[in-house]
Protein 1
Amino acid sequence: MNVNDSEFIEGQLEAMGYKLTKDMNLADIVILNTCCVRKQVEEKIYSTAGIIQQIKNIRPDLIFIICGCLAQKEKENFIKRIPMVDMILGPSQASSFAMLLNEYLEKREKLVVCNNKIPFNLKGIPIKYSHPIKAYVQIMKGCNNFCSYCVVPYTRGPEESRPTEEILAEIRHLVDHHYKEILLLGQNVNSFGNHSANHDSFLTLLNKVNKIEGIERVRFITSHPKDFHLDLIQVIKESKKICEHIHLPLQSGSDRILKKMNRQYDMQQYYTIINHIRKQIPDASITTDVMVGFPGETEGDFERTMQAFKNIQYDSAYTFIYSNRENTLSSLFNNQIDLSVKKQRLWRLIDLQRRISAIKNKAMAGQIVEILVEDKSKKGIDNQFWGKTRTNKVAVFNAENGSSDNDYLIGQLVNIKIIDADAYTLFGEFINVKTK
Ligand code: SF4
């Protein structure tokens, strides 16, 4: 979501005549767009601010802006500890960035705007997509769920959905500019439309997106198990465009911890969704987010999470150590877990998932899969490219031998044959460019 906010900020700056430079010494404006999900970011802001201060000592007219959800959460501390900051903007201000910058340029007075109650409106806001073939399309903002550990409902405000027609218009525009893949973005996409009368539901939106000619792949993130409609599985199954990948955060395998997290589902409900996916789309990949060391998590609770991983056999998982976030309910809970215990649980879980991922990926040897080629190999190996499968797995492949320039493959859908794999990557051989 923050990456998408940065794309809106860059689009507006470009429309104002600014150009992107990654060298702070050359910049007229330095922007730190922050995320508060991980704690280390805070320290990084203060150390980067020290570097910016040195540049500002030489060029006092350099404009320094901190924005995003951490800015919203920490604005008082930033004002106190980074007095030279010129603008502090919350995540909801990304869409009005140009207007606020103009206001600052006119008055040259510190500007702090962190208001997540403003109406959600992206219509006509310039955007600079950061990737040439795949794009994020924001469909809603905010979250109403108040999981006890999470700051998002406080920083991004309540859920609000974008009008369907506006979303479809953005996707059609992307098709006209040769985009192949879109990722529908929201904190809780399954509740799209739920909070306003006469709004399309997420399933209706997907059906409409599915009818747009020219887009090859549609993904969405993130699904909340409590709002996951089982009919969604059928929609994915019947669609040629919606990719067979479902990211379904688990957070914990223990009902007791799920309750303390205020996740509003239990393991039985979660397994019901998994079983339906496995039955209706056996080749779908399922990935998850999980947290270890939530306050009061016993060894028994953690073992339930390990057991859930063994039962569900995720394709991959984002694993996190719980840390207290200011102003959240769980930061007030007793029985905080020792960092050493949290780390040890995290490594046990990562090790388990690594073994599961490796087995699942290796079992794909011999299969022919479709890849959307993103770029040349990151290792710089001649004639080697990488992309992602429809199931969101990274695949590296060698292009045709004997041809010196295969760069035309970037941005194409190609078929490759899987030769080998490890826990994180599939390795294959090029077969052909996919024809319609
Ligand atoms: S669903 Fe829970 S974890 Fe996700 S953004 Fe909302 S409050 Fe945070």
Note: The chain is about 35% helix and 20% strand.
Protein 2
Amino acid sequence: MSEVLKTENLWKVYPNGVEALKGVNLELYEGEMVGLMGPSGSGKSTLLHMVAGLEKPTKGKIYLFGQDIGDFDEDRLSEIRQKYIGFIFQFYYLLEDFTVFENLTLIGRMAGQREPEKKALDILNYLRLSHRLKHRPSELSGGEQQRVAIGRALILEPRLLLADEPTGNLDIEEGKRIFELFLRLKEEKGLSLLVATHNEELRTYFDRIYRLRDGVLDV
Ligand SMILES: Nc1ncnc2c1ncn2[C@@H]1O[C@H](COP(=O)(O)OP(=O)(O)OP(=O)(O)O)[C@@H](O)[C@H]1O
Ligand SMILES: [Mg+2]
């Protein structure tokens, strides 16, 4: 199995002195769904943001698809993100001036997809949002916004999905439905996933779990 992600001795010290990550080493292989679990403040979001190239590590290396992203400039990082990575943000970051439907189709069109509409409809249908296509994010419940954020991360058919508490605002049944979708994408398309969650009930979906505590992985 080929290696999708590897971190080596990854450190993040924020400017205020908080040591959010202290020497994290992890790997993710193609077609794996791996959990990232740990208490609030343990560094899960920090780790996912660095892996996506959204934040710079203080020290250490990140390899995506075998390439050291420490050598990449901002343009190259954006290109890698657009082509290969889906990111589900803990706090969604939806485009507030656009509808649910447009939040997906715009991403597709910007990436050069010819007919993002059909794919957007299929995804939104699975996410049970067909009745909310023309709504703006501010008109949605927290769980509905979360499902739009999931849809947006999937529209470009990423090879790697980085998901930060993707079901944090969903009830357990809806959460399982999302994880069933993740499983299907992993099995049918070889998607690799690194998923931060607090929810121990969803543990059984993971191939492996990394446990983070105070910026350090349990061994
Ligand atoms: N921008 C920042 N500046 C300074 N400190 C930060 C910043 N972002 C996070 N931290 C600190 O880094 C630590 C790790 O935060 P992080 O958001 O990665 O945790 P988390 O595991 O995702 O928590 P949660 O489960 O609550 O989402 C925390 O102590 C937090 O206060
Ligand atoms: Mg977090």
Note: Residues 14, 16, 18, 20, 38, 40-46, 90 surround adenosine-5'-triphosphate (ligand 1) (CB under 6 Å).
Protein 3
Amino acid sequence: MKDAPDKPHATWRVLGLEQGVAEPEPRFLERAAREIGAEPAQVLGARIARKALDARRRGGVHRLRFVAHVDVTTPASFRSARLSRGLEARRVQPAPAAATGRASRIDPSVARARVAVVGSGPGGLFAAWILARHGIRVTLVDRGSPIERRGRELVAFHRTRTPNPESNLLFGEGGAGTYSDGKLYTRVDDPLEETLLEELVACGADPSLVYDARAHIGTDRLHRILPRFRARLEAAGVQFVWNARVERLVLASPGRVRALETTVGEIACDAVVFAPGHSARDTWTALHEQGVVFESKPFQVGVRIEHPQELVDRAQHGLGPEATLLGPASYALVARAAEGVVGAHSFCMCPGGRIVASVNEPGFLCTNGMSNSTHSSRWANAAIVATVGTREFGPGPFAGVAFQRGLERRFFEAGGGDYHAPAQRAADFLARRVSGGELRSSYVLGLVPGRVDELLPPILFDAIAAALARFERTIPGFSGPEGLLVGLESRSSGPVRMPRDEVNRRARDFANLFPVGEGAGYAGGIMSAALDGARTALALLENGIG
Ligand SMILES: Cc1cc2nc3c(=O)[nH]c(=O)nc-3n(C[C@H](O)[C@H](O)[C@H](O)COP(=O)(O)OP(=O)(O)OC[C@H]3O[C@@H](n4cnc5c(N)ncnc54)[C@H](O)[C@@H]3O)c2cc1C
């Protein structure tokens, strides 16, 4: 692919080009140039802006196609009859300008500020990245360990079955997504997304990450990328403080923070970007006691479901020769609400992955999914979740947290109190009976046959049962004996929100506290948390500290 030039030019986005999955990718670029009538000499640059697999069945047959939007750069003066026709038919449009990630101005109140960022998840890391690029001094504090040590701590948890509450699958460098599928697609349409993805490419991620509609990194690669990202941040002046839990804010006056009180001492700062993730329950409570406002918000609860990957491949890609050119198949399924039953959907599908114990506190069980870059396991897993709100858990800022904890405790105890997870075949869940025989799964800490149908509140049982019936129509076998439900999945999204000013992004009643990411209720996933961190850092730079 050629790069866009410096001389005056125009970039045209050619939409919806299709080709077979066996065709070489560069053919998209040639097609796009032809589509606008540009001769090779008139093409100054071309690149795929978006590429997705279309695996829909037509007439009962899988016709696998890639569909792409392609950007073609030409001299500014370029015009052709084909281009005019394409523009008129809306098959072509001027390519949207890329976001630079640069603040339009720097408010004098932050020019010399020291900003403390709490949390090294995607929200905190990308907030630090934006701030450091503007010359702001940043101290990034995380209660967990850097990735090298964090891996050993996780192995120790699996061996001893005693979680380390400070550094675990959820806490430590990279945050909750460090042991994940590393899916990086979002439903947020933000031009800044590409800029952030390019930074990950600069840290060693595959360049297709920027345009692949199903982009994922995988845990193995993420573990090589994160230390490089850390090194680049350090080179830009970010100081990391690991294994330091923020316990309280030190206030200069009501609503104004002057330092963080941490387990390793006080960290002075002029502003705080607070990105502690969806499981920092102790920290939320501590800040709430100091007058920081929290509200409950609806969140998702359900179970993981696991199948042999080939069952999913067969349904989604078919058995034709082209299917072998594609990796393991994924799915995203929705069951709408109907007749007193709330809707449910699949979430965070991990092809070729495994189920993990997504645990930070002793005595509570929660599952999630991860995979490596090659999606190499023989298992496919995903969450099936429904949304619960105050109707289920009642009033109060932390009522949702109490509801989560109650269910997590119930599943922990039903698993025998050592992180074995209760499991039930989908067919048995629907028939409301315990599963017999060996339950095989990727879940490394082991399963026990359990009445998942009874452990869940009735509203969730009804929603998941209806969803299983619906999903069976798309993926035959989904709800049969080969589908295994493993519980509980309770942290697909955060249960609290910290209200903040929409423009300045300051926490309510605070001049210099900036809530960010999933733990503050503004994100649900790696990229949305990263974007929230970056956008909040830009708001801090442009609008300053109050
Ligand atoms: C197993 C798993 C798989 C996932 N897979 C995907 C996926 O494929 N794609 C996707 O988009 N999303 C995935 N997610 C969700 C995604 O990881 C989160 O949405 C995202 O990480 C949220 O980012 P964040 O920056 O808001 O918080 P987090 O990533 O949770 O980071 C918060 C950080 O704050 C630190 N912290 C907390 N309290 C304190 C304190 N008091 N003092 C100091 N530090 C503190 C924690 O140690 C942690 O490192 C997955 C999550 C899990 C658990």
Note: The mean pLDDT is 95.
Protein 4
Amino acid sequence: MAGGQITNVVGVAFRMKIFTAYLAHETNSFSPIPTNLRSFEELGVYRTGMGPPDEDIALLKGSALFYKEAMRRGDEAVVGLSAHAQPSRPTKRADYETLRSWLLEDLRLAKDVDIVLLFMHGSMMAEGYDDCESDILGCVRDIVGDEVPVGLLLDLHCNVTSQMLEKASFVTACKEYPHTDFEERAVELYDLCVRLREKKIQPKVGFARAPMLGLFQTAQPPMRDFVDHIMAREKDPGILSITLAHGFPWSDFKDAGAGVIVITDNDQSLADTRAAEICEEFFALRERGQARLYSVEEAVSAALANEEGAVVIADMSDNPGGGAASDSTFLLKELLKRGADNAAVAYVWDPAAVEIAFAAGEGARLPLRIGGKISQFSGQPVDLDVEVVALRTDAMQPHIADGEPTALGRTALVSSNGVEIILNDVRQQPFSAEGLVAAGLDPWSKKILVLKSSHHFYANFHEKAAKIIYCDAPGLLNGDAKKRPYKKITRPIWPLDDITQPNVTERAEAS
Ligand SMILES: [Zn+2]
């Protein structure tokens, strides 16, 4: 298979030749974890020509969504750079430039593509590049020109910029948090790009910035109803796509915050008015659209008070999926202090403790210093006499975005005072009980499960959990925006400033 180019139906003329690439990083400006090429390589990097995409679909990650749709349609697909890293600090400049050069080299090799479909996060920052998405789009445009449709699919935790909207033909994002709908959104974006290529539509984009910082869970009301309402309105005459960009509050970036993108078929006025209207509705949900947060003490008290089944405590502020180290000890300490005797904590990223547990072996009993190592946001380490219950090197979990298996690294399940802790050496948030089981834990026999995740766990835990408690411990992703040392963010923005209206006109012009 030359150059990674794929043909799927011998002798049938291809309708379209697409190029797809995936480069994703959710950048947390305040994270203590550096981001370099190794951070991407650790999770696997695919490039054109490395091998037939079919044979290692998990390595394609986000590109797989567009690749699979191309195969379904009988189109030709060239898969370029596909890489992501766990959320962390801005990528080192030279390493970002290397990744960018790989993506562009793959695009140049593809030659004469009809459509470019990119999947990026929407809040990627690198040293010297505050808006990597726009930077990549600009370079892609320089290669393919203005006539080739370029579709950009984002995570809804994106900080949308006017430059992204100018350079891409379409910018859309997933609608669900947890992000369970990337496949549908990829198919829709693909279809829009095909229709534009065939000159059947003329997209006009309206954008209204909603100056607010928060995490808006769409599985529960009122956000559930709002998203359903948005999807119904996408069927209105003239509307091609509506996207709620929730923003990523931990990127210290001038355009950080929420917004609404409305794309119409050749009706600028409809795009602008509808975006402004929906933006005001979204902004009105800024408080009610977020989960109730419990303190560490309240969370453990509420969990201990539960009688039947397992209570999940989301340790939101230590979510590695938002740039935290995943080694904080605030909840672990509280569980031990309160004598919680049938609890588990996952995943505590502690490569040194993993190393020691592996050296000791399964069944060993030894003193182990756990967590609290990376920064002030990790709290203090906890010294425990533990039993090494299970050691695994092959534990995986299905990724929330595409269901493909994701490695948890080496895992060590240790137990002390009735609390079981899964230690690992690849930072990952728990997406599914499968990963916990793969590490040797029996999750549903526990009374309390502390999961280092903000909300993605929800999709796979909510049906069996007796109760879900969102805990706002004093870690990196603590919900109090006023404590974050922002330098670049555009003010006013809620809740840093006490504003009650989005002022859509002024904000749209300012961007
Ligand atoms: Zn997200």
Note: The domain at 2-284 is CATH 3.40.50.360 (Rossmann fold).
